[in-house]
Amino acid sequence: NAGVMQNPRHLVRRRGQEARLRCSPMKGHSHVYWYRQLPEEGLKFMVYLQKENIIDESGMPKERFSAEFPKEGPSILRIQQVVRGDSAAYFCAARTGGGGYTFGSGTRLTVV
Amino acid sequence: KNEVEQSPQNLTAQEGEFITINCSYSVGISALHWLQQHPGGGIVSLFMLSSGKKKHGRLIATINIQEKHSSLHITASHPRDSAVYICAVMENQGGKLIFGQGTELSVKP
Question: Smaller CB count within 10 Å for chain B: N or C?
Fold first, then answer.
């Protein structure tokens, strides 16, 4: 998945801390999606962003979660005051021409 | 009922066997993706389909839009094919994906 870069690959946070997950799509690609994979569950949509705009955040929890995709720099998924239930794999994906998708390698968040 | 249903959920095969994984969906879509995920690993897109059939090496994917059904076939399966295979449909508006629960495939030597 060299096209979409996510970091960090693994992130450990204590309950109550903040988690920041970063995603850099391929150059020139401005449609970014964040998905979450909870343990033993399937992938679920969280948010769809274009540069400087949130297009669809219908899958984002109402509190503690936010996302941005600034004009310059990576897309950021931010989770404030993390709880154990936030432990999951978070994947970023870029939508390419014709509807194709390229996924990042994911960030595995563990809340202890 | 989930909008995307896959079957089977788990599949064990002997090396060399022909494998079929099925996917049914209930929403309007612009395309369907088949994805592969290894344990602890990232997600790789195998196919994107909007009609008909596609083939890549030993993998074949088909879709029937009228019946809202797709299949992924693996011919001459190999232990390295062991992974989770995920069906995902792309909504008409916005392009977000709705995922099936995945099929965990184990191919024994």
Answer: N
